[in-house]
Design brief:
Layout (H helix, E strand, L loop, with lengths): L1 E7 L5 H12 L2 E4 L1 H13 L8 H10 L14 H10 L3 H18 L5 E6 L2 H5 L5 E6 L2 H11 L7 H24 L12 E4 L5 H13 L2
Helix pairs in contact: 1-9, 2-3, 2-4, 3-5, 4-8, 7-8
The protein binds 2'-deoxycytidine-5'-monophosphate.
2'-deoxycytidine-5'-monophosphate binds next to helix 2, helix 4 and helix 8.
Length: 217
């Protein structure tokens, strides 16, 4: 089974790349950020997000998590993402979610010719022996613009758009900082990862670039 590890910053294009590759090659795919987002979302729903015992509640939720039912659309908000990034600093929670990610790979070994995981620590921690590792990044301005476009808000006044962009840039910078400065499995390219900047290329060009690397052409 071929293993592909994709890491990178928020809105860098890593998720779309993972989906496109999975479709192209018929591989199993897991967006590992969804696991952290789901735990964060449950904390918010159960009104435990301001609890002083977040480690206890987040690990309890994580143990019962059925990650096959997760959908990004339900977990997209920046509030959820921010809390996900915060609780992702807990080593105990990471241990539980790491096991679930490894279980996903083992379960799909006989069902698919390959497996793709995307997240923050896939190449460094979850799949250290992956056949291919990619680290995807882009400038903060471009990533914030992509996030704004995803929100699909029509008839935005120029000033409102500027304000929203500024606040997205602020939130994303904070999240990047938290993700890359935590002690356990911080966001960082694996030493053997192909690092790709998507600031000036679109999803199709990225797919082509990565496909060429995988197929050795
Ligand atoms: O990929 P995403 O934006 O959906 O991830 C949300 C948060 O989850 C991210 O800011 C950090 C955390 N995360 C992580 O720590 N490790 C992963 N493998 C995936 C996500």
């Amino acid at each position: 089974m071929i293993e592909i590890a994709i890491d990178g910053t928020a809105a860098s294009g890593k998720g779309t790349l993972a989906k496109n590759l999975a479709k192209k090659y018929g591989f199993a795919h897991l967006d590992t950020g969804l696991l952290y987002r789901k735990v964060a979302d449950e904390l918010i729903i159960k009104k435990k997000d301001t609890s002083s015992n977040l480690v206890y509640y987040s690990t309890k939720i994580a143990r019962d998590l059925n990650f096959l039912e997760l959908k990004k659309e339900d977990l997209r908000s920046e509030k959820t993402a921010k809390l996900a990034s915060f609780i992702a600093t807990y080593p105990k929670l990471r241990e539980i979610l790491n096991l679930k990610q490894k279980e996903f790979v083992i379960k799909n070994k006989t069902k698919f010719p390959g497996c793709i995981l995307d997240g923050r620590d896939i190449g460094t921690k979850i799949l250290p022996n992956a056949d291919f590792k990619f680290f995807i990044d882009a400038s903060i301005d471009i990533r914030a613009k992509r996030r704004l476009l995803e929100k699909n808000i029509s008839f935005l006044q120029e000033n409102d758009e500027k304000c929203m962009l500024q606040s997205l840039i602020r939130e994303m910078k904070e999240r990047d900082k938290l993700d890359s400065s935590r002690i356990t499995s911080p966001l960082a390219p694996a030493v053997d990862a192909y690092v790709i900047d998507t600031s000036f290329i679109d999803a199709d060009e990225l797919l082509l670039k990565v496909t060429k690397i995988i197929e050795g052409i």
